[in-house]
Amino acid sequence: MTKILIVDDSPILRSTIRTVLERAGYQITGEAGNADEAFALYGKERPGLVLLDILLPGESGLDILRRLKTMDPAAQVLIVTAVNQEAVNEEAKQLGARGILYKPFDPSELTAAIAEVLK
């Protein structure tokens, strides 16, 4: 099963996503609330998928995505965000995001979006 890293500044949302995904059989390799934590965990765990928020303290999710794809061009990233702006969406796709899921979402939407990215 694919290992997943959750990057979101909300501990409650990270916990909720973890619960949903573990129940669906996914392995969560870690949770990060900012860029430093995200890169440390990515380097250590090399997850098969990163769930990445856009609005984070310090570096934005787009900044993280840009650096992550430079570090590992094969990195698989699903943006999970409340930001629904066309320019941001386009930039995320141009930077290599495999998909975008908007908050709030149902658990079935999350698992469907992950399945789509991983197929």
Integer-rounded radius of gyration: 13 Å
Indicate the mean pLDDT.
96
> According to CATH, what is the topology?
Rossmann fold
Q: Could you tell me the strand content as a percent range?
A: 15-25%
Tally of individual helices: 5
Structural features:
119 residues; alpha/beta; Rossmann fold; 48% helix; globular
Compile the SSE list and pairings:
Layout lengths: L2 E5 L3 H13 L3 E6 L2 H11 L3 E4 L8 H11 L5 E5 L4 H10 L3 E4 L4 H12 L1
Parallel strand pairs: 1-2, 1-3, 3-4, 4-5
Helix pairs in contact: 3-4
Quick recap:
By secondary structure, this protein is an alpha/beta fold.
Description:
The protein has a single domain, classed as Rossmann fold (3-Layer(aba) Sandwich). Helix content is 48%, strand content 20%. The radius of gyration is 13 Å and the shape is globular. Helix 3 (61-71) runs parallel beside helix 4. Strands 2-1-3-4-5 form a 5-stranded parallel β-sheet, sandwiched between helices. The protein is α/β, with parallel strands linked by helices and 119 residues long. The longest helix is centred in the first third of the chain and has 13 residues, at 11-23. The protein is built from 5 helices and 5 strands, in the order E-H-E-H-E-H-E-H-E-H.
